[in-house]
Amino acid sequence: MTDLNTQMTTEAMMQAEIERLRALIVTQSEVHRDHVRGLTAQHEKEREFYGNAAQDFRIRAEKAERELAEHRAQTDALIAAAYEDAAKEADKAHEQNEYQWKTRAYPRAISCETVAERIRDCVPADAKAALETRDRAMRNEGIKQAATAAWDVPTGYCTAKRINMTILSLIEKEPEGKGDE
Q1: Is 63 within the bounds of a domain?
Q2: Which residues form a coiled coil (predicted)?
Q3: Cα 144 to Cα 159: distance, rounded to the nearest angstrom
Q4: Considering the entire predicted model, what is its pTM?
Q5: Which of 2, 7, 106, 128 has the most CB atoms around it within 10 Å of its CB?
C-alpha cells in the first residue's frame, strides 16, 4: 500500500504542480494581455496625437501659403503704385519744364513725358493686376459703406431701399476668369 500511497502522492503532487503552472500561465497571459492592451492604447493615443499634430501643421501651412499669396498681391500692388508715382513725378516735371523742352534743343536728353511712358511700361503685369484688384476692392468697400449709410437717410423705406439698391449696383465685378470679391 505504501507504493500505492506514494504513487498517488506523486500523482497528486504532479497534478498540484500542473495546476500551479496552469495558474501561473493564466496569470502571466493576463499580465501580458494587459501589457499589450496598454501598449495598444498608448500607440493609439500617440497616433491620434501625431495625426492631430500633422493636421495642425497642414492647416498652419495652408494659412501661411494664403497669407504669403496675400502679401505678394499687396507687394505687387505697392510696386505698381510706386511705378505710377514715379511716372506722375516725371509728368509733373514735364509740365513744369514744358516750355524749356520745346524751346531748347537737348540732343541727348529724353523728355520727361518719354520717361513717364517708359516707367509705366516697366510695371510688371501682375503688379498692375494686383493694383487694379486692390483699387476695385477699395471702391467696392466704399460703395457698400455708402449703401449702408443710405438706410440712415430720413426718408421712407421704399426711397431708402431704392437709394441702397442704386448704390449697390455700382459695385464693380471681377473681370472674366477671376473670382468675386
Answers
A1: no
A2: 54-81
A3: 17
A4: 0.41
A5: 128
